[in-house]
Design goal:
single chain; alpha+beta; 10 helices; 10 strands; 20% strand; elongated
Length: 475
């Protein structure tokens, strides 16, 4: 009776967890999936990768636009330098400044820019689908974890009912033994069965908490042992999944994000080859610029007075030497202001430039070869993705059929064992059979009931996998 008492206490303690959970928030499958998608870091990283691919695509499109750059400088020169105003050498310190705008646009370069735009565009759309694939995969994992919790809850309920039946038999046999109406081995056999039920109940409780922990970790929320989930509506008779493997595979090629992403990666790699080949062609570009400058030694000369200065020559008139004078114009020097020089020194340039690749150490040839190998490898990856997909669908469909057939057989087995147990319980209570026969019948019924629950959840999950492959996963 001590062992029986300990078992009762264990069941009461474990049952309190279930009772307490009734007061907790009930999580729906939709809420669990949405929470996991919102909190999962790898999914967020996949989203960031998609944004990065989009930025690369926008950058490639912007390369078609002309560039525009401006600059301004101011500096000091010492020693022998060129006077920017007179373009002559001078040996003095002066300061100088310059400003300019330049612009250029590529008119033709073997369609490299256009092909890079297509290449990055395909890569961006592929990254979006890969992000969706990561979300779909996480959704499938959450559904599996959710069904696992519900499955363990159902087994927990079966285990509790099984343990309660055994406990009632122990109490009944204990009374009968005290009155001398049954043998001691009948009571001890039943107590041993009760202890086994207690162990199974504890093990299942631990399995239930582990399943809840797995679900909480997928949702990236703190673990709550009292987590309560909404129940699914179990049909009385499940219908066989209608789609054949070939049909599922055909739809997966059209709808599954992973397949479409692989095809887009192939197209992106093919455009990469065309972009690399474009480097063999000449490049035609248009360039234009405008600039001006300033120099601190730049000055203007303003006429002032005219003075007469002897030249050193003489003119003899009547035998008299008369000195020769010449007139010299005096000038006043004035620094040219900074703004005036900038306005007066403006110069412009525009023109076309053609660049012809003649020999560049086989860089273009190597780039083209690498792009071809990358494209070929990408095509292999896409083919391998489809091969693995087809094999996975065939395996998933076979597993679905097996779980469906197993469920149908277990349905009938539960019905049969339920009737056998009902009859055995009546006979055991009347003393017509021994405890061993009663326990055997009871265990058969309990195992069949547990197996039926597991088969039902397994079938549901297998159908979700097939839905996932077709790109129409729902929850």
């Amino acid at each position: 009776m001590k062992k029986s008492g300990i078992g009762i206490i264990a069941v009461v303690v474990l049952s309190l967890a279930v009772v307490t959970s009734l007061a907790q928030t009930t999580y729906s499958l939709k809420y669990c999936v949405e929470t996991a998608l919102a909190n999962n870091i790898p999914v967020k990283q996949a989203g960031l990768q998609s944004e990065l691919e989009r930025a690369n695509w926008n950058r490639a499109k912007a390369d078609l636009l002309p560039n525009l750059n401006g600059g301004w400088d101011y500096g000091w020169n010492q020693g022998r330098s060129i006077n920017p105003f007179t373009n002559a050498y001078i040996s003095q310190q002066f300061s100088g400044s310059g400003a300019g705008l330049s612009s250029g646009i590529v008119l033709f370069n073997g369609l490299q820019l256009q092909n890079v735009i297509r290449q990055t565009g395909y890569a961006y759309r592929a990254s979006e689908l890969e992000w969706q694939q990561s979300r779909d995969k996480l959704t499938l994992d959450v559904i599996l974890a959710y069904l696992t919790v519900l499955n363990n809850e159902d087994i927990w309920a079966v285990m509790k009912e099984r343990r309660e039946v055994t406990h009632e038999q122990v109490k009944r046999l204990a009374i009968m033994f005290e009155k001398g109406a049954t043998a001691s081995y009948m009571l001890t056999d039943m107590k041993g069965a009760l202890a086994a039920d207690d162990i199974a109940l504890v093990n299942n409780y631990n399995a239930l908490q582990t399943a809840k922990l797995d679900l909480a970790q997928l949702m990236n929320i703190p673990f709550d042992k009292d987590m309560k989930l909404e129940r699914l509506q179990e049909a009385e008779l499940l219908e066989l999944y209608p789609a054949a493997p070939a049909e599922v595979y055909a739809k997966s090629l059209e709808n599954l994000a992973l397949v479409k992403a692989a095809d887009l990666r192939v197209k992106s790699a093919e455009k990469g080859v065309q972009a690399a080949r474009g480097a063999f062609f000449p490049t035609l570009s248009f360039q234009a610029s405008v600039g001006t400058n300033f120099s601190s030694v730049s000055a203007t000369q303003t006429p002032t007075t005219i003075v007469e200065e002897p030249t050193g020559d003489y003119v003899t008139i009547g035998g008299v030497k008369n000195p020769v004078f010449r007139e010299n114009q005096n000038y006043a020097s004035h620094k040219i202001p900074y703004g005036t020089q900038f306005r007066n020194n403006v110069g412009t340039y525009y023109g076309f430039r053609v660049g012809v690749p003649i020999f560049n150490n086989l860089q273009i040839h190597t780039n083209v070869k690498r792009a071809k190998l990358l494209a070929k490898n990408t095509a292999y990856e896409a083919d391998y993705t489809k091969l693995i997909l087809r094999q996975s669908i065939e395996k998933a469909h076979q597993d679905m059929l097996a779980s469906y057939e197993r469920y149908k057989v277990l349905q009938q087995q539960v019905t049969d064992y339920k009737e056998s147990f009902r009859s055995a319980e009546i006979r055991f209570n009347l003393g017509a059979i021994i405890a061993t026969e009663y326990l055997l019948t009871k265990n058969n019924y309990d195992r069949a009931l547990i197996n039926q629950k597991q088969a039902w959840y397994e079938y549901i999950f297998r159908t979700r996998i097939l839905d996932f492959y077709q790109g129409n996963l729902s929850f």
